[in-house]
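Researcher: I'm preparing a figure for a lab meeting and need a structural model of a single chain. I don't have an experimental structure, so a prediction will have to do for now. The sequence is pasted below. Please return the structure as tokens so I can convert it later.
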Amino acid sequence: MVVMKRVALMFGLLIGVGVGIAQNGAQAAGPKLPKADRELSRVIFKELIEINSQDSNGSVTACAEAMRKRLLAGGFAAEDLVLAGPNDRKMNLVARYRGAAGSKLKPVLIIGHIDVVEARREDWTTDPYTFIEKDGYFYGRGTQDMKVADAGIVEDFIRLRREGYMPDRDIVLALTADEEGGKSNGVDWLLKNRPQLMQADFVLNPDSGGVELRGGKADEMDVEATEKTYADFRLSATNPGGHSSQPRPDNAIYELVHALAKLEANPFPVELNEVTRASLAITEKIAVPSRAADIRGVLATPMDMKAVADFSKDPADSAMLRTTCVATMLSAGRAPNALPALAQANVNCRILPGHSQEEIRQTLIKLFGDSKLTVEYVSDAGGVSATAPNRKSLAPPPLRDDVFVPLREVTAEMWPGIPVIPVMNAGASDSIYTMAAGIPSYGIGGVGIDFDDDRAHGRDERVRVEAYYSGVEFYYLYLKALGK
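Model: Understood. Here is the structure written out token by token.
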């Protein structure tokens, strides 16, 4: 999953519905999920959560097969439910909802990964692969990222089929592997090996957009319009090692720690672009006074560096202003009584648009300033190389009326008064593959997550019960609105 934060695309672009921003989140109740669909969506959600699909010892195929059985039982033809992938554990499901016969419109493609981040029982209060409902929340790995959306859209397909709905074009749902890690990214694999299944006019990616809640109330609908570039680098320090009774000043661990201390002490410079500058201009108008003052300082020429520092105290805000790099894994040593000959760290970077992975690698080398250190690129598949690609973030797709007009309508129906805001994603998503394939891609989700309760990739992952059901209803209405 990706981490979302407000970043509007153009000055003044609050794609609302003729009403002001609901700053306190209050709005009239929207449509409710019918009882039968509420019950079925819960059953499907529980089934998905309780299938371990993490890379180390789980099976994406088990999830794909389970959802195929659900759709078969819901009346879908076997030939419209294709399992395809590189190996027995990494099979993807591509489900096609047939539209009007003879339609000249290309399909709508929905992508949703069914793998999850690694979860260990000892880290959690509850079993991450046991679906638990308590205190108004569903708990389990994937309840935010992103089986929550997968389950809901599968139920929506079944409901639409039961009701005899006929869209004006095919709607394709690809449930895929290895977005969170592993060597077999499903979207990439399907585009390369089964391109006929992935042909589309545009892509919807529920993993990278959604409803932001404050105190449980919907505050805004974020739509991913662009994203940072992801990169991992392996930082290595070496020396001859030796007996621990004779410490060396060039201990490999010391060298590594000193480099990481430099990384912490020297954040990347602030760099505003059209997207982030516009977001700040909009946010300043609706922020509380202290935050608004900080934003004005960030936008000033020259920048007010105290305001920048205050604004950057929130990690999510800081990530919108700059490229970020942080150590995420460490390894060193072979014995407790020997100096390590090798110490390594994985440095994970999220790179602003307009910069390449190799450019950031060179920046890190210059920052560390130590010839005894090496900085190597680690690919998504785990391969290590001396240099990194020069891949930069792609330009944002056009804000198409056929995507955004129905989105505004359904959002107004579900959560009256909240704005629809195109944003920049501080993380990364599978949209990078579909965008690279030339298919406009939009991060649109309907499940609300509290602004201060983002537990994706973390312990005790959870989602509000009613937020899940609202998300199921949202996508049902949105797919109908798209297919008129």
